[in-house]
Design goal:
homodimer, 146 residues, mainly alpha, Multidrug-efflux Transporter Regulator, Chain: A, Domain 2, 2 strands, 3% strand, elongated, DNA-binding
Chain lengths: 146, 146
DNA sequence: GCTGGCGTTGACGTCCGGGGCAAGGTCTAC
DNA sequence: GTAGACCTTGCCCCGGACGTCAACGCCAGC
């Protein structure tokens, strides 16, 4: 099948498939006229990539799964390298969740305090003071390039 | 004070301060020779921005806090607009955490399954089959442009 | 032979928060 | 008078995962 059909059947776009090929992730055979030619196996590889992507895996992280399938294994996660990616992602998710949860609690506390101050400030006398503590603690810090 | 001193005192860089100014977030007076001139109040504004940034707020999300301080309020979160940002961020964090937690559990389950299969596949007979379910559910889906 | 729908490559835009560098102006100290 | 530290603007660069043209080739149907 050609690129358009593969894209449709996998629920993605031709641009994405060309991008994957440019990354060496999903190489394609070529027909005489230069068109990319794919088969059912490629569809399987692509579905593996897309599934992992949907779960938040980066493109590079899907590579071991794809290579595992290409090597003829029954599933993309039948290889040790894939399991390692699972484990790393698990640790990463745990860390991110913990960090976000801490930030969430901090923000919730600030919101509660600020609401109290607003309620007290309008009727009573204005004297409260405080802000989100300049606590240089473990904020999300914006997704680091790690 | 000039830009270099402000940057040092706030623990950031001159590049960042110019960037903030280009975004209209932290405007600066100018001296006769064209140098940017800041005062202690600007340092306060900047600290507010940096604190929120450290907690994962986007630059635009810090704007209400800055404007609140500029309007003369005691704290950046003394204004309703700031409280709204707190609430929105809280809801966003809750959603993200729930999503990541669900993904985490899914990945953990897949890892456990794959490890079992690997252990069973080596000694016994190879017959298992399964992958990370192509569940089109609520994966992180990668930060959508929302 | 002409339109329409595929396909090709290449290059640039997006979002975010800046980093890095160049060429030049300005101020202070020696 | 000159070194060095500071300031100015302007421009291109990063990464991730593509989107969006542009300009062209190929092929089927009518």
């Amino acid at each position: 099948m050609r690129i358009g059909e593969l894209a449709r059947r996998a629920g993605t776009t031709t641009r994405t498939l060309r991008y994957y090929e440019s990354r060496g992730l999903l190489p394609a055979r070529r027909t005489g006229n230069g068109y990319r030619e794919y088969d059912e196996e490629d569809l399987r590889l692509l579905r593996q990539i897309r599934t992992l992507q949907d779960f938040g895996f980066g493109l590079e992280e899907t590579r071991p799964f794809v290579e595992c399938l290409q090597a003829g294994h029954p599933a993309g996660d039948s290889c040790p390298a894939s399991l390692e990616v699972y484990r790393a992602k698990l640790a990463e998710l745990d860390a991110v969740v913990a960090r976000l949860q801490a930030v969430r609690d901090e923000v919730a506390a600030q919101l509660a305090r600020a609401e109290l101050e607003a309620a007290a400030g309008l009727p009573g006398g204005p004297e409260p003071r405080c802000e989100l503590a300049p606590h240089p603690g473990p904020g999300p810090g914006r997704p680091d390039p790690t």
